[in-house]
Design goal:
Protein name: ABC transporter ATP-binding protein YxdL
Organism: Paenibacillus plantiphilus
Helix content: 25-40%
Shape: globular
Number of strands: 12
Oligomer: single chain
Bound molecules: adenosine-5'-triphosphate
GO molecular function: ATP binding
CATH architecture of one domain: 3-Layer(aba) Sandwich
Keywords: ATP-binding, Nucleotide-binding, Transport
Largest sheet: 6 strands, mixed
CATH class of one domain: Alpha Beta
Structural class: alpha/beta
Low-confidence stretches: 1-7, 263-268
CATH topology of one domain: Rossmann fold
Pfam families: ABC_tran
Length: 268
């Protein structure tokens, strides 16, 4: 995540590719001029980053996630995802683009209770007419990384919350998306399950190079990120970069939230 520039960035000699480019994006709900949930937001997210979005309730976190994940359209401004201007591509192509490029993880898991975990994970690729053998081997590989091999033939209601979320992450990854958008992925989990899920997200970020963008209220969850973007009243209020020390970053997050005025922070 970076401030705007016209070219890709470099670390050493390695070019960092922008996967998301948000330029002066605003979002108004209830018709133009009614309520500005996002105000002229600009940011870049680089391929392979694990980025957190924090801010008080109502600050625009989910709205920004919906804009970047193309769930909803911005009122003004420009948004490029993997170099594509979603507002300019036809709806049919946009649906395929989303399917191939983006994966979602939600607080409520959204698994189907009448299908096994394996079938839940396979669903996005089954709908894409991918061969069964390819799907099954991909599921084994991902379930190995996420530690849910033994849960594959169970039904979601037989799993713990953490196992359900790890299954949901597998499903989000099955079509090999470049970006995973996670909206409060640990919001419904106890602290042990939260850590397991966050370790899994970190692991897929490292092993598969998947870019992860995560909205969270939880400073511990955010401390797993490479960078954190803080929203307040629909604008970017601050940014923190990790130097690799999770505990140090956690303290800096708490300081940032204190400076921002955390009166409507429910869970810190
Ligand atoms: N569909 C909508 N119609 C009207 N107003 C909306 C809509 N969605 C969100 N808002 C308003 O926009 C503002 C930002 O909402 P958003 O959900 O993005 O905040 P948030 O930071 O994700 O909050 P929370 O942490 O409580 O989930 C809020 O004031 C909210 O009431």
């Amino acid at each position: 995540m970076e401030t705007r520039s016209n070219s890709n960035s470099y670390i050493g000699d390695v070019a960092m590719r922008k996967i998301i480019e948000v330029s002066n994006v605003s979002k108004e709900y209830g018709g133009t001029g009614a309520f500005r949930a996002l105000k002229d937001v600009s940011l870049d997210i680089m391929e392979g980053e694990f980025v957190g979005i924090m801010g008080p309730s109502g600050s625009g976190k989910t709205t920004l996630l919906h804009m970047m994940s193309t769930i909803d359209a911005a009122t003004s401004g420009k948004l490029l995802v993997d170099g594509h201007d979603i507002a300019r591509i036809k709806e049919k192509e946009a649906a395929r683009f989303r399917r191939d490029t983006i994966g979602f993880v939600f607080q409520a898991f959204n698994l189907l209770d009448n299908m096994t975990v394996r079938d839940n994970i396979a669903l996005p690729l089954s709908l894409n007419n991918v061969k069964a053998a390819v799907i099954l081997s991909k599921i084994e590989e991902l379930a190995g990384i996420l530690g849910i091999i033994e849960q594959l033939d169970k039904y979601p209601y037989e799993l713990s919350g953490g196992q359900k979320q790890r299954a949901a992450i597998c499903r989000a990854l099955i079509a090999s998306p470049k970006v995973i958008f996670a909206d409060e992925p640990t919001g419904a989990l106890d602290s042990k399950s939260s850590s397991e899920v966050l370790e899994c997200l970190k692991s897929i970020n490292h092993k598969l190079g998947t870019t992860i963008i995560m909205v969270t209220h939880d400073a511990t969850a955010a401390s797993y990120c490479d960078r954190i973007l803080f929203l307040k009243d629909g604008s970017i209020h601050g940014r923190l970069d990790s130097d690799g020390n999770k505990m140090e970053l956690f303290k800096r997050i708490l300081n940032m939230l204190a400076v921002m005025g955390g009166s409507n922070y429910e869970r810190l």
